[in-house]
Design brief:
Blueprint: H1 4-43, H2 48-62, E1 67-74, E2 77-84, E3 97-98, H3 101-109, E4 113-116, E5 135-140, E6 149-155, H4 163-200, H5 205-220, E7 224-231, E8 234-241, H6 245-249, E9 253-254, E10 270-278, E11 281-290, H7 300-329, H8 339-352, E12 358-365, H9 368-375, H10 377-394, E13 400-405, E14 408-414, H11 419-433, E15 435-439, E16 442-446, E17 448-454, H12 462-478, E18 484-486, H13 489-493, H14 496-508, E19 514-523, E20 529-540, E21 544-546, H15 548-558, H16 560-580, E22 589-593, H17 596-599, H18 604-614, E23 622-627, H19 635-646, E24 649-655, H20 663-667, E25 670-675, H21 677-680, H22 690-705, E26 709-712, H23 718-726, E27 731-732, H24 743-748
Parallel strand pairs: 17-18, 20-22, 22-23, 23-24, 24-25, 25-26, 26-27
Antiparallel strand pairs: 1-2, 1-6, 2-3, 4-5, 5-6, 7-8, 7-11, 8-9, 10-11, 12-14, 12-17, 13-14, 15-16, 19-20, 19-27, 20-21
Helix pairs in contact: 1-2, 1-4, 2-4, 4-5, 4-7, 5-7, 7-22, 9-10, 10-11, 14-15, 15-16, 16-18, 18-19
The chain binds ligand C2E and magnesium ion (2 copies).
Ligand C2E binds near residues 549 and 735.
Length: about 775
């Protein structure tokens, strides 16, 4: 039997070894299964929150943990951001837990910590304590210094987290960290692109900077964000989020440059600053700060730099728009309001208030031509400048003084009581001007002939008042230099020609005197025709062709424009439907001009759509043009919204000639801008047309940033077409390709087109 003893003990030993091997294999199998499960999760295309949720669930299963959570240290608190095992309303998510010794050690060493049995109470906080925790493990999410996020496992099972467990948890935590960072990077890139788009929509600086501060706060997850600039030796706080009133009250601060700005952020342990660089140097500083020692994520500075670039581009666009607005409303020589600013001011006064209290004085200098001829244009310009100064001194603070053109100035008088008051003010202006001025060293005698009118209820429009004041001025001039003449109410009404023309216009359509001409809108590169613009013509039996600029205002005064406009639309739609039947006419658009009077009609949108559909067209075949000068009431937004929703494309005509405070672009779903021909004719003018070139460039940049299509009007030469093409303008119209033509001739311009250039499309 002695021989059996060794045999028994050997067997026993073998059995033990076998059991150990089986255990080890089972452990290895279990570990491998757990690892596969976890890696599988990391590979799925889930968002960060979903990934964390799934991961904590699997960890809880695989490591028999009652509670698994992810938590971040904020100051002296540990805030739980996700968990498996904690109720949703646990204060750990909001108030957090106090930071215990285990957390401190884990962060300091960047190594996992595991405790078994006597886990100190400070390390098992809040609702977890009631679970009878016997083991716990704290795993840093990344081994980088300052890492502040931990994976924490608590279990009531009386089994320690063994070294292999901790090794596996460390590896899983590192991979989870990488996966989250990757998702974060993607999310930030998407967010940046979206924010860039949001910034580009602002064309005014203050709201732009305000939005930038808000976006910066979110983008950097900062507690405070602010934007500062330096102007005239003063550092200014231009926009901010989260700054305390005390800090705000400290601004402005003396500073020569952005580098020179003092540390206003005292008390904030973490501040990132990035300059917004533009062609003319750095112009603003973006700052983001955190209140507690919670460092910004890696890469935040790069993100801020990209954001600053977006802001730089948006600021440049805003500046360009401002310059454009100035140019559109100011007379470049005198700095006074120009003709279009005058008309829109007058329009606003007449539409908003009592027209019988609005007066107009039309002033024309006497003998100005002689000054020009004798002393040259420079002297002429200097004289105009001095006259402008004189007039500035003569007008009342609420009046608007404008240069109408050449040597003509117009004063719009608000709140005058009667025509005699208009005459009195006219006489005063006349007397103030009647003097000798020294121009280029020469003594010059100046005076002005002045005509005045007062608005008439129900009749007054800017064009009618200006015409009557102009007529009165001629009567004054006929009486000699330095005279004032006013039109009384009846006389301004008895303006025979106009009355006759108005009456005849009412019958013009039924007499077959109206017809449409069509001018092609074409792609500037291929010359393919994309659409036609319908332009109304009136052939009068005695006066011949009456230009639309003359008869459309008359039709607007009588209201006949509503019926005429409806007829124009129906004609144009019928013509387009005919062209659509030709193979070369497929996909062609039709642009139709709208009068603001039409926009203010009840059910205007339904009636417009009815006409389009009755012709068998889709609303998207039609482009409707609204001029930038038109005075729009609020209902128009609804009208335009309904048409836009149905697919009709809205065009802002004559863009750049009036400054409507961007309200058109904001209020109406405009998709297309027509660059006015006054700019187009200047792009190749003498001296390289630098001013108009930069204006056109600015309009194109604005169109681009708002996702609008631009069309250049009035292209008359090949040079203009080339210049516009090189600026990136893709569509145009003008005498170069074709004048407006009768339908039959216009149809001959159509030729088979292999492919249409991109049509206007709606943007978000
Ligand atoms: P618009 O809508 O800006 O039309 C463009 C004007 O520029 C047209 O003048 C056209 O003949 C002219 N034009 C086109 N190409 C060139 C070019 O290369 N050089 C020059 N110098 N001019 C060019 P038109 O036909 O005299 O019309 C004047 C305005 O009358 C139009 O300006 C539009 O505001 C208005 N209008 C015309 N038809 C209608 C209509 O049916 N309804 C309404 N409400 N307004 C209309
Ligand atoms: Mg037009
Ligand atoms: Mg136009």
């Amino acid at each position: 039997m002695t021989a059996d003893v060794p045999a028994d003990s050997e067997t026993e030993q073998l059995r033990r070894q076998l059991a150990e091997a089986v255990d080890a294999a089972r452990d290895a199998y279990r570990d491998t299964t757990r690892l596969i499960q976890l890696l599988d999760l990391l590979g799925r295309p889930a968002g960060s929150a979903e990934l964390i949720g799934d991961m904590l669930n699997v960890l809880s299963d695989a490591f028999f943990a009652d509670v698994v959570c992810m938590a971040r240290v904020c100051g002296d608190r540990l805030i739980v951001s996700g968990s498996c095992g904690l109720p949703e309303d646990d204060p750990a998510y909001t108030e957090g837990w106090p930071v215990g010794e285990a957390v401190r050690r884990t962060l300091a060493t960047a190594e996992p910590t595991a405790l078994h049995r006597d886990v100190p109470a400070e390390d098992v906080p809040g609702s977890v304590a009631g679970l009878g925790i016997r083991s716990a493990a704290w795993i840093p999410l990344s081994a980088e210094p300052y890492a502040d996020t931990l994976l924490i496992l608590f279990r009531s099972l009386d089994q320690p987290f063994a070294v292999p467990d901790l090794r596996m948890l460390t590896s899983v935590a590192a991979r989870l960290h990488m996966a989250l960072e990757e998702r974060e990077r993607h999310a930030i890139i998407e967010q940046l692109a979206h924010y860039g788009h949001l910034l580009a929509r602002h064309l005014e600086v203050e709201p732009l900077l305000d939005e930038a501060a808000g976006l910066l706060l979110r983008l950097t997850r900062a507690d405070r964000a602010w934007v500062v600039t330096v102007e005239g030796g003063q550092g200014r706080l231009r926009a901010h989020r989260g700054l305390t009133p005390g800090i705000i009250a400290d601004w402005p601060v003396p500073a020569k440059s952005l580098d020179d700005l003092p540390a206003c952020e005292a008390g904030l342990p973490e501040v990132l600053k990035v300059a917004v660089s533009r062609e003319n140097g750095a112009t603003a500083l973006l700052c983001a700060g955190r209140e507690q020692a919670r460092p910004f994520a890696q890469g935040t500075l790069e993100i801020m730099t990209i954001f600053a670039n977006y802001l730089g581009v948006a600021l440049t666009n805003a500046d360009l728009y401002h310059a454009l607005a100035e140019r559109a409303t100011r007379d470049p020589l005198t700095g006074l309001a120009n003709r279009s600013a005058l008309v829109s001011h007058l329009d606003t006064l007449l539409s908003a208030g009592d027209p019988t209290r609005v007066g107009v004085l039309f002033c024309d200098l006497d003998g100005f031509k002689a000054v020009n001829d004798l002393f040259g244009h420079e002297a002429g310009d200097e004289l105009l400048l001095q006259v402008a100064d004189r007039l500035r001194g003569s007008v009342r603070p609420d009046d608007l003084l404008a240069r109408f053109g050449g040597d003509e100035f117009v004063i719009v008088l608000d709140r005058v009581k009667q025509l005699s008051e208009v005459a009195e003010i006219g006489a005063r202006v006349c007397a103030d001007l009647d003097d000798r001025l020294v121009v280029c060293g020469e003594q010059v005698q100046v005076s002005a002939s002045i005509g005045g009118v007062l608005g008439v209820r129900g009749q007054a429009t800017p064009s009618a008042m200006l015409r009557d004041a102009d007529a009165a001025m001629y009567v004054a001039k006929a009486r000699g230099a330095g005279q004032v003449e006013v039109f009384d109410e009846d006389a301004s009404h008895r303006s025979r020609d106009r009355l006759d023309l108005r009456a005849e216009l009412l019958l013009a359509r039924s007499r077959g005197q109206l017809h449409l001409a069509y001018q092609p809108i074409f792609a500037l590169d291929s010359r393919a025709i994309v659409a036609f613009e319908a332009l109304l013509r009136w052939t009068h039996p005695h006066h011949g062709i009456v230009p639309p600029d003359v008869f459309i205002p008359l039709a607007e005064e009588t209201g006949a424009i509503v019926e005429i406009g409806q007829w124009v639309l129906a004609q144009a739609c019928r013509q387009l439907a005919l062209w659509h039947r030709l193979p070369e006419g497929r996909g062609l658009g039709m642009s139709v001009n709208l009068s603001p009077v039409q926009l203010h009609q009840p059910q205007a949108a339904e009636r417009t759509l009815d006409v389009i559909r009755a012709a068998g067209l889709h609303p998207a075949d039609i482009w409707l043009e609204i001029t930038e000068h038109s005075y729009l009431r609020h209902e128009v937004t609804e009208y335009a919204g309904a048409l836009g929703a149905a697919g009709v494309h809205l065009v802002l005509d004559d863009f750049g000639t009036a400054y409507s405070n961007l309200s058109y672009l904001k209020r109406l779903p405009i998709e297309i801008l027509k660059i006015d021909k006054s700019f187009v004719s200047g792009v190749t003018g003498p001296g390289g047309g630098q001013i108009d070139l930069s204006i056109v460039r600015a309009i194109l940049a604005i169109a681009d940033s708002l996702g609008l299509v631009a069309i250049a009007e009035g292209i008359e030469t090949e040079d203009q077409r080339t210049a516009l093409r090189s600026l990136g303008c893709r569509l145009g119209q003008g005498y170069l390709l074709s004048r407006p033509l009768p339908a039959a001739q216009a149809g001959l311009l159509l030729r088979p087109r292999p492919q249409l250039p991109a049509r206007a499309h709606r943007v978000g």
